[in-house]
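Re: weekly structure request thread

Next one in the queue (349 aa):
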Amino acid sequence: MVHKVLAEQGAGGINTTAIRIRESGIERRARFRGLAEPLSLLVALAVLIGVFSLFNERFLTASNFQNVLTQSAIPLIVAVGATLVILLGSIDLSVEGVMGATGMTWILLSANSRGGADLGPWAWVIALGVAVVLGVASGLIFTALKVPSFIVTLGMWYVGLGIATMLYGTDLLPRLEDEALSGWTSHITLGLPNSFWVALIVIGLGILVLRSTRIGRVTLAIGNSETIVRSAGLPAFRVKVAVFAIAAVLSGLGGILATVQLDIGSPTVGSGVLFIVIPAVVIGGTHLGGGKGGILRTVLGVFLLTILNNGLILSGVESSYQSAVTGVILVAAIVFAAWSQRDRLRVAK
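Done, posted below.
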């Protein structure tokens, strides 16, 4: 291309018109690729809906629609935080441990069958504070000690699970006894489940943070080139720690809502959420190397996997086969997403 540009030089210099034409062509192709990814997800969603509606007449009913929204609410909340972390070029595997620790903390400080103090709103504050501590710890170890986020958050997963298990102890299951909260997540308000309204608020706030705040802009910049961010004097260290803290708070919120939904406390309340959230972010088009993607894309990815699982259940597919299908999709999505970035990710044998 350089030789072509030089060949177009005249006595007056470089032919800037030709350069602008080429640049506009590159921009058009980039815009097309940006539109093609979400459009392909929408097509996949439409195909899934069409196929499952043929196999089971209950699939397109209003009650199942509400079930899909309820099932997708907690993964949507957690996935907003996971998207921010992956946009950094990192990954957060601590989701299920944070959910367990936060959920157990919350129910033991609320009205429950074991008794104890009912702290009301303070139970939420303290439980989410536990999530913040776990998230900040992950962020500091990753950022200050340069330990890969994969290893740090995998370890933090088990730290959270250990905290939840110790809180659970050997007594009877702590059952939620607050009648106002029992079943609240699935109650319908203005046609939508309450938990889904919470997810919509979180999605809106996530989009606002990513597009309109310094944290969001620096997050995208770090994903593209942390070296440039540091050389520009931007607060890369603080932003990375803050993103891990935000992700942990959202995982903690998901853990509390899952506990409310179950009406009991359990260390494994977040079981299986990670294997919906990470594939959803990747399938949605957020690059594993960071710097490119978005929360709305992740929303499409969550709905795709939720509808797939819901349709398989209604079609009578056994749970073991459902797990196999989800695993195949996870591997295929990561291979597809990472293939074009394999040099950048330094993938080795």
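DSSP finds 13 helices and two strands in the chain. The radius of gyration is 23 Å.
Next request, please.
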